[in-house]
Amino acid sequence: MTDDTWGRVREDLRKAVGKNNYVTWIEPLEFATLENGVAHFRAPTNFIGNWVSRNYGDQIAMHMSRNGTPVQRIEFSVGAAVREALAASSVQPNSVSAGGSNAPSPAPRPQSKGASDMPGAPLDKRFTFDSFVVGKPNELAHAAARRVAEGGPVSFNPLFLYGGVGLGKTHLMHAIAWQLQTDRPDLKVVYLSAEQFMYRFVQALRENGTMQFKEMFRSVDVLMVDDVQFIAGKDGTQEEFFHTFNALVDQHKQIIISADRAPVEIKKLEDRIASRLQSGLVVDLHPTDYELRLGILQHKVDQYRETYPGLVIKDGVLEFLAHRISTNVRVLEGALTKLFAFGSLVGREITLELTQDCLADVLRASDRKVTVEEIQRKVSEHYNMRLSDMIGPKRHRTIARPRQMAMYLSKQLTSRSLPEIGRRFGGRDHTTVMHAVRRIEELKAVDNQIAEDLELLRRMLEA
Ligand SMILES: Nc1ncnc2c1ncn2[C@@H]1O[C@H](COP(=O)(O)OP(=O)(O)OP(=O)(O)O)[C@@H](O)[C@H]1O
C-alpha cells in the first residue's frame, strides 16, 4: 500500500469515526507492511494497539479494501514512532476497561476547572449511578462511591475499590466523576487508567517535562486511577505514583483507586504503597449473585425497549440467563445485546429456545466454574456456621469438620492446587488440606450423613 492510499484510508476513517476518535486512535498509527493479506501497523503503545484492534480493526480493513487494498487481517506491534499529535493532543486515550469491546464513542471529557490542560480519559456516558444496579454483592462499594460523589469533606482516603473482571469498578468510578462534574463543577476531577498514568509519566520523562507532570497531577481535587495493579513491578511509575498520592492526601484531596485485587495481594507492589492504599476505605465488589444478575438484565431490557420497541421477550428468558451466565456483567450484557439484535433481525419474539440457539457459544463458555469462596459460603450456610470460621483458627469439631468438607469439595470441584486451597482457608499449609481430603474420603465411606451432605452440596454448587 502506498502512502497515498493510506492517506485516503485515513481520510475515510476520519469521516467514519469522527475527529476526536481519529486524533486519539488512528492518527498515532504508522503503516508498516502488507504481506499475504496481513496489514501490519505500529502503534505507540500496546494499549492503543489493543484498543484500535478491538474497536476499529474491522473498519480499517474495510476502508483499505474500499481503497483498492484488500486485507484479511490487521496486526499491531509497538513501534518507536510516537506521533507528536498524540503527545500534543488534548484528547487522551480512553481506558480499555472503561469501554470494553462494544464501547461507544468516548463522551466528551468532562469540562471542569482547568480541565483543558489536564490529562485524563473520557468518561463513558452510560456509566452513571442511575444505570448501576445495586444488590448485596456491591452495596457497600456503591454506598462508598455515593458518599465520595457527594464531594463533601474527605472522610476516607483513598477509596479503594477492588473486584474481579467486569464487576463494575470502572462503572462506579465514572459514576462518581459524572456526579461530581454536575454537582461540583468547581472541582478538578481526573479519571485515568494506571496504564495511562504510566504513559504520561514516561512521556514526561522523555520530554523533560516531569516538573510539569508533577504540578499537573498535584493540582487536581479528585484523582481516580483505574486498574492500579498495572503499575506493580514498574518501579519508576510506582515511585511517582506514590509521591503524587502522598501529595494529594496531604492536601486532603480525594483519591479513588481500583484494582482487580486487594492492595496486599497485588504482587510486586511495594509494601509502602500497598499499605498507603489500604489506609482509607477498602471495599470489594463481590461476584454477582443470581438476584443482582437478574436485576441488571431487567434494567438493560428496559433500556433496550427504546431501541427495539415491540420486541417481545418471553417469561423465563432472563431468569435462564441470570442462572446460566455467572461469569461477569460484561458477558451478561454482551449476551443480551446479541439476543436483542438477533431477535429484531429475524423478527421473532425471544423465546427460551431462540436464546439457547443464539447464545450456544456464550452459554458453553460460561458453564459454571465453582470457586473456593462459593464452596466456603455454601458449606457454612449449610452447617449454620459463620463464614469467617472457615478461615479462622477455631478447631472445635462443629467447625473443623465442615471446614474439612469445604476443603474436600474445593479439591474435587475446582482446579486449585492443595497449597492454593490452603491459602484460601486462612493461610493453612497444604498438608492440612491433604489431611482433610483423606479424612473426608474415609468418613464418606462409613458415614451416610456425610456422604449425603456432600452430594447435596455438590449438586447445589454445580447447579
Ligand atoms: N451493578 C451493575 N449495574 C449495571 N451495570 C453493571 C453493573 N456492574 C457492572 N456493570 C456493567 O458491566 C460492564 C463491566 O463493568 P466495568 O467495566 O465497570 O467492570 P470493571 O470491574 O471495571 O472490570 P475490569 O476489571 O475489566 O476493568 C459495564 O458495561 C458496566 O456498565
List the helices and strands and how they pair.
Elements lengths: L2 H15 L1 H8 L3 E6 L2 E6 L2 H21 L6 E6 L5 H5 L7 H4 L39 H11 L9 E5 L5 H15 L5 E5 H13 L3 H9 L3 E5 L8 H16 L3 E6 L11 H7 L3 E5 L4 H18 L9 H8 L4 H18 L5 H7 L1 H6 L6 H11 L4 H5 L5 H17 L4 H7 L5 H17 L1 H15 L1
Parallel strand pairs: 2-3, 4-7, 4-8, 5-6, 6-7
Antiparallel strand pairs: 1-2
This protein binds adenosine-5'-triphosphate (ATP).
Adenosine-5'-triphosphate (ATP) binds next to helix 7 and helix 14.
State the main characteristics.
463 residues, alpha/beta, GMP Synthetase, Chain A, domain 3, Rossmann fold, Helicase, Ruva Protein, domain 3, five-stranded parallel sheet, three-stranded mixed sheet, 55% helix, globular, binds adenosine-5'-triphosphate, DNA replication origin binding, DNA replication, lipid-binding, cytoplasm, ATP-binding
